[in-house]
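Q: What structure does this chain adopt?
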Amino acid sequence: MTQFLANIPSPPQGVWYIGPVPLRAYALCIIAGIVVAILWGDRRWQARGGRKGTVTDIAVFAVPFGLVGGRLYHVATDWYKYFGPGRDPLDALKVWEGGLGIWGAVALGALGAWIGCRRRGVPLPAFADAIAPALITAQAIGRLGNWFNQELYGSPTTVPWGLEIYRRVDEFGMVDPIRGHAIDQGAPLAVVHPTFLYELLWNLLIAVLLVWADRRFRMGRGRVFALYVAGYTAGRVWIEMMRTDAATHLFGIRINVFTSLIVFALAVIYLLVVRGKREDPELVRGKPLPGDDDYEAEPASGAKTGGDAQEPSTATTGEKAEPDRSREERDQE
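A:
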């Protein structure tokens, strides 16, 4: 028994009930990560010259796109869990039970962010740079959900920080690792490497690296985001190879290892090819929308002239004609 004294115990359960309503730790961790990413990302965006609230507006598009993309990637790479003999395809919709692929989340989340950036009139690379440290911190927070679900762990180990895995059963005595409750926390089924914790700590280290590099080199043009991708994938390769949970393999290697290596190479190439300092703060401000402090609604056409009156021409006033300006240019002045 003394060999387990220094180990990390798993929570006895991952779901609590308030009456008939389930309170799922995994979902709460994901939500907490999203909140932190938005709040911190908004502060960094304002520090770069952007308008307050822009990150929240863009998150309205990026977050749901990211969640859908993350789930699609997970189902595509772990399809055998949901399709085939004895499987229920509807289980693919049960996001609360875990299973979000980061690369699907980044890909579709980037599409949602692009839509939001277009709406606000701000460059996507600048937005990506602002939220990069907050995004990887959100991933670290989300990894706590894997701890509650007793998932994403490695092989048996004798290290002092080994993770204790318990047998969980539901109210009918059936084994249920997600919704069940540990029946005997004094006798773990196994003590394993807590790979979820390794990734959590690695993500926090990368977040610190991103903040330091951004301040030191005033990075821009999407280079902070590229550094985030390169740093995360470098850690994901060795952490993924330690995991022992079921996964799709390619040539005997987990498919996420191949994905991480490819994405790492692309991120490094981007860092080597793209150059330039941060974008001009005036460019980052974008265009004001209703709700912004500096938003001024334009009067309806003809409100002061009856609808058909025209501005005096330069021929009668003697003033020098100004080139036509777009609404965005007028708003930025």
